[in-house]
Amino acid sequence: xxxxxxxxxxxxxxxxxxxxxxxxxxxxxxxxxxxxxxxxxxxxxxxxxxxxxxxxxxxxxxxxxxxxxxxxxxxxxxxxxxxxxxxxxxxxxxxxxxxxxxxxxxxxxxxxxxxxxxxxxxxxxxxxxxxxxxxxxxxxxxxxxxxxx
Length: 149
Description:
By secondary structure, this protein is α+β, with helices and mostly antiparallel strands. Helix content is 19%, strand content 34%. A 5-stranded mixed barrel has the order 1-2-3-5-4. The chain is globular and about 45 Å long.
């Protein structure tokens, strides 16, 4: 297995259910649902939802992570229940139950959020260009430019 990933975050589908995987990426969003922690993990290729239970090793560490922290996880791909399927995502039929997590880089407070498309003054966007380029709209533009070239 590769040191950082066996699959990309946008590659997993329902046919992968039951597979053991290793993913690496940025913490895009975190949602705490009373004992269950849901994380949207993002890489260049897409998003995958992770599920962590309180007994998961590293749960407390991940619970305090901020958005844009970089993690590597090992886990099992499972099919989502019918009422939790997200039709807006290619990976919306599955989630990964995390069994091990390693924090590769912990992020500090961000000067501008990466998710969403709020407008910020150009001065802030240029000063933090490395974050601005991670925003979905700009990322898609760069990928399109690369395909055209």
